[in-house]
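One record is given unchanged without comment:
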Amino acid sequence: MNTAASERGKTGTVPGSTGKAPETVSDVVFRQIRQDIISGALKPGEKIKLERAKERYSISISSLREILSRLTTENLVLAEGQRGFEVSPASRKELLELADLRTVLETHAIGLSFASGNLEWEGRIVAAHYKLAAAERKLLAGDASRTVDWVRYDWEFHQAIVSACDSATLMSTLSSVFDRFLRYHMLARSFRGQAVVDDHKLLFELAVKRNTEGARAVIRKHIESGVEHVLASGFIA
C-alpha cells in the first residue's frame, strides 16, 4: 500500500489538497492505518512491527510512531512501552460500551439536527439514502463486492441525519465512536440483510418528517440489533 509515497510532494504535503492547512503525508498514512484497523485488515491484538509498517505505508519510523501514538487516543492502538504498539483487542465489554455511547450521542444529535435542519439538510439525507439503498440492493442480490461501498454509505447516511446539530465536538466524538463500533461489524463480516435495510428506510422517512421520538426509537433498536448480530457471529466471547 504505497499511496502515500505516490502523493508525496517536495514539501511533504499532498498535492491538490485544499483549505487553510494542506494535508500532509502523515495525515494520509494516519487515515490508511486507521481504516486498516477499522476494516479488520489489521487484526485485534496484532503486533505492529515498525520496520514492516514503514515499508507498507512508505513513511519514516519516527512519523509512524507519532501516527500510532495519535491512534492510541482513539483506543484503536495500544502502546506497549519499549515493546512497541499493537492493535487494540476486541471485547464484548467494549462493544457494549460503544453501543451505549453511540446510542446516547446519536439520539441527542438527532434532536438537535431535526430542530434546526433546513432544505439543504433534507437534500443531504435524500442523497445519502439513495446511495445507501442502491448499495443495499446489490448486497441483497448477493453482490458482496459492494460491501465497502455499503460501509461508506451507511456512515454518510447516519452522518447526514445528524449533520444539522451545529456541534463540531458532538459530530467528531460521534464519528470516532461510530467507527470503533463499525470495526466490530467488519470483524464479524456482518451485513444484517433485509432487517437493516428496513431500519434505514424507516429512519429516512422519519427524518424527512422530523419525527424525533420515532427516529430515536429506530436508532436504539438499530444499534441493539447490531450488537446482537455481532455477538451471534461468535468472533468474540
The chain has a mean pLDDT of 88. The beta strands are 47-48, 77-79, 85-87. DSSP finds ten helices and three strands in the chain. The domain at 92-233 is CATH 1.20.120.530 (Four Helix Bundle (Hemerythrin (Met), subunit A)).
